[in-house]
C-alpha cells in the first residue's frame, strides 16, 4: 500500500514510523535466490549451512536490508524518495524450516533539513533478541 508523498510539514524529529513484521520462510529464500541469482547454499541447504558452522539456513543479507527499507519507502509514499540508504549486517537471520523467522522493523526520524527538504530515518531490525542490522540509515526527499 502506498501513501501520499509526505511533505516537510508532515515530518518532525523523533517521529516514529509504522513498524512492520517481515515473516521469512524457506519459500521466501528460494524465491529470492532465483531473483537475485545468489545461489549460495547457506540460504537454502540446511545440511550445508550446518556444515559451515551456521545453526540453520540464513536469509540473504540484501533481502533483509531491502525488506527493512520498505518501512521507509511505504511511509514516505514513493520508493524513489529514498535517496540514500546504508546499513551494516550485524547478525544473520536464521530461518528454521518449521517456523521461519520474523524480522521486526521500526524507524524514527533523527534529523530534518527543511531547506533541503530531506529527512534522515534510523531503522532498527531485530529477529528475536538479535539486532540484525546496525547503523541502518535512510535519507528521504520530502515535498
Give a quick precis of the structure:
The protein is an alpha+beta fold and 143 residues long.
Shape: elongated
Helix and strand string, N-terminal first?
A: EHHHEEEE
**How many strands in all?**
5
Largest sheet: 5 strands, antiparallel
Query: Given this structure, which CATH class is correct?
Result: Alpha Beta
CATH superfamily: Hotdog Thioesterase
CATH architecture term: Roll
Count of individual helical segments: 3
Radius of gyration from the alpha-carbon trace, in angstroms: 17 Å
Q: Stretches where pLDDT falls below 50 for ≥5 residues?
A: none
In order across it, which strands form the biggest sheet? 1-3-4-5-2
Strand content: 25-35%
Distance between the termini: 19 Å
Kindly state the mean pLDDT as a whole number? 96
Structural class: alpha+beta
Describe the structure.
This protein has 143 residues and is α+β, with helices and mostly antiparallel strands. Strands 1-3-4-5-2 form a 5-stranded antiparallel β-sheet. β4 and β5 form a beta hairpin. It has a single domain, classed as Hotdog Thioesterase (Thiol Ester Dehydrase, Chain A, Roll). It is elongated, with a radius of gyration of 17 Å. The protein has 3 helices and 5 strands, in the order βαααββββ.
